[in-house]
Amino acid sequence: MINQYLGRYIVEKQTSFALWVSLISNLLLTTLKIIFGFIFHSQVLIADGVHNAGDVVAVITAYISTKIARQPADEDHPYGHGKAEVIASGWVGIILGLSAIVIAYQSILSLFHPASEVHMITFIVALFSVLLKQSLYIYCIRVGKRTNSKSLIATAYDHLADVYASIAAMLGIGLALIGVQQDLEILKYGDPISGIIVSILVFKLAVHIGSESTHILMEKNLEEERIEEYIQTVSTIPEVCRVDRLRAREHGHYIVMDIRVSIPATLSIQQGHDISKKIKQTIMNQDESVQEVLVHLNPFYEK
Length: 303
Prior knowledge:
Elements: H1 2-39, H2 43-69, H3 83-110, H4 120-147, H5 150-182, H6 190-217, H7 224-235, E1 242-250, E2 255-264, H8 269-286, E3 290-300
Parallel strand pairs: 2-3
Antiparallel strand pairs: 1-2
Helix pairs in contact: 1-2, 1-4, 2-3, 2-5, 2-6, 3-5, 3-6, 4-5, 5-6
């Protein structure tokens, strides 16, 4: 029991630290991009800064949801609070989608105005963003998968969207710089054109995160392959004559399962109780992410 609580404490601390690192980084990038974007009239840098401002809200939401999700089950929430992280993940998807719309709108407007003058400093800021965000993505996705934190994984994908956005910004600013040097009018609009490309990439990622959260909230069954693995595991228990049905769904960072099995009808209630405990323990030993297993026993009669 002590090891279990210690493990949960370590997981919570790792997740919280990763979210704090993400929050501070997003605040830094938001400030840099918006300030330098306005100073040097870079639409794509301003749009990317607005996107990072949305990330700040998303990370705060993820941090709060993680705290709620790690609370133990209570009378009002007997299955725990795990779906708080899924809700936060959905909000991240919504924020990303809105950010994509803002980026696209601002970039399209810029195409109908004279091309703004570009500066090397904006290119350096975009490059710094790529390097920082790629590091954050690698860090958060590793911690998120290790702790099975849906909100942290969503935050990691948010960082990945920023990598795409910043790469597109770099390319756009770089093309605009070449356009100024070579006096090529079309390349001078590389900044807003790259902003449109950024919006498409970000919106696509928003749809992916949003759909995944929706599936969990709608209690979609796990993949058929995983269900079959659980069935095979239960079937190895000698007293189990048949697995009649097995359903399993994600409940945030853990899995909730219910299973119906047939056992010999001649067994006593005490024996049936012991078999239920064995089934539950066998499944949870196989997969630590399974935290709740409801076993229903059916009588099996030899034909």
